[in-house]
Amino acid sequence: MKPMIVILKDGTDSNQGKNQVVSNISACLAVSEAIRTTLGPRGMDKLIVDNRGTATISNDGATILKLLEIIHPAARTLVDIAKSQDAEVGDGTTSVVLITAEILKNAKSFIEDGMHPTIIIRAIRKATALTIKKIKEVAVTIKSDDDKEQRVLLEKCARTTLSSKLIARQREFFAKMVVDAVLMLDELLPLNMIGVKKVTGGSLEESRLVSGVAFKKTFSYAGFEMQQKKYTNPKIAILNIELELKAERDNAEVRLDNVAEYQKIVDAEWSILYDKLDTLHKAGVTVVLSKLPIGDVATQYFADRDMFCAGRVQEDDLKRTQKACGGAIITTVENLNNQSQQVLGTCEIFEEIQIGSERYNCFTGCPKAKTATMILRGGAEQFIDEVERSLHDAIMIVRRAVKNDSIVAGGGAIEMALSRHLREYSRTIPGKEQLILAAYAKAFEVIPRQLCENAGFDATNILNKLRQKHAENNIWFGVDIMHEDVTDNFIAAVWEPAVVKINAITAASEAACLILSVDETIKVPKSAAETSNAAKAMNMG
Ligand code: ADP
Ligand code: MG
């Protein structure tokens, strides 16, 4: 009798071979099925309720996939590429998943026919390189020497991104706002220097852009209303010090046996606080911001001396203010005097403004860093959240376009052009590769087809028209969402930065290759010891 060789633990789940590849592909197709209806200007939104009951309405591929909590190991790859597309370029997250799924779907029949995955992978790699080369070849560079011209270009890109979102109707308004915000930043275009604040209520058009830092008025004590609410060239002190009376008592234990001593301690507390306040006042500070609370005595003190204060400011707001206005976060007032002005920040105008039912502290004309804050208005909370996500996509796209000003036409135009190019190329090569390249080429048609389907058009009809136009070398013809027809999307100004497409196609191909190359999944069970430990821990809890 042959000895039995046991390698894997009892209960290990292992699947392998052709069937495993096919089943992985099916899982990916199921994922893409879940989000395909969200693509494009006529795409639908998804409402997802998580296990805590929080509802999210979104149109963004990455957001939806993140919330779906997919557990299938191969299908998780799709979630990862959507996330990476989101991080890398910000837009095109639905497209990347759809293209991956379509490549896999077209490859599936080859696998079923017994073609080895390595051959398919090699062909896909080759096709990807060709595709990227083609995109770079056809992408149009718009000169950005002229500021006005660049603005127009950026606004068009932002508008295309926004046209597939919930706020498509207001895309003119928001495209302008996003471009304004991005152009306010410095060379490096740091994303975290654009703050987004949400105030529910009001209409979307009441949203506004502040060229500087803005944050909601913090909790304040009596006396606050007596403070001045507008300063030009204020001196701003950003503190990490508690300006409250009772604070000192908590730091020490004090034992007393008579009233006089108690009075001394109370006096000492007062004088400690007053010393701090006096130092701030003498240093010429006019606006005091603190991470920690500012009590009623301090508030009144500042009010009497024409100073403004805000306590319990959120940390990220405080950091952004510090970056924008200069100065440092002060943890002790000991060394603060007229000479040590570099620790104080400044800006052109500080004022408190009313937005809807909320009051905001605004710092504009900041000297150190360029920053901008968007204050969004709108009905429901979920709605504003989706607006924020949409604007994030648009901001990322505009940043991309500023850095790299080559663009292609969207609405399926670039995809059709690539498809045609690859199909023609495939005819020049012999062997199995020809088939695979043709299948890969066909995969790109998923974008225009899905755009049509989501808009309720006859996809076959439109695609035939598009193929005909592209055969005549009209490379920018794509779906005309308004008129159920095809049109030159370059003229129609449906523009997208070329990097979005390059990144999407590279990522999609990589993911497809990854999934095709996995022919075995092994699931190791939890060991008995671990399980019993977990059980014990649970009992103890
Ligand atoms: P993604 O998450 O991939 O960005 P979207 O839902 O934003 O998905 O849809 C993007 C697609 O919609 C792109 O292919 C883009 O070219 C297309 N698109 C956007 N605006 C228009 C328009 N006005 N007409 C036709 N197609 C458009
Ligand atoms: Mg988009």
UniProtKB/TrEMBL annotation:
GO cellular component: chaperonin-containing T-complex
Localization annotation: Cytoplasm
A molecular-function term among this protein's GO annotations: ATP-dependent protein folding chaperone
Keywords: ATP-binding, Chaperone, Cytoplasm, Hydrolase, Nucleotide-binding
Main location: cytoplasm
Record field: catalytic activity: ATP + H2O = ADP + phosphate + H(+)
Claim: Mitochondrion is one of the keywords in the record: no
InterPro entries xrefs: Chap_CCT_eta, Chaperone_TCP-1, Chaperonin_TCP-1_CS, Cpn60/GroEL/TCP-1, GroEL-like_apical_dom_sf, GROEL-like_equatorial_sf, TCP-1-like_intermed_sf, TCP-1_chaperonin
Chain coiled-coil ranges: none
Protein family per UniProt: Belongs to the TCP-1 chaperonin family.
Subunit relationships: Heterooligomeric complex that forms two stacked rings.
Name of this chain's protein: T-complex protein 1 subunit eta
Protein species of origin: Adineta steineri
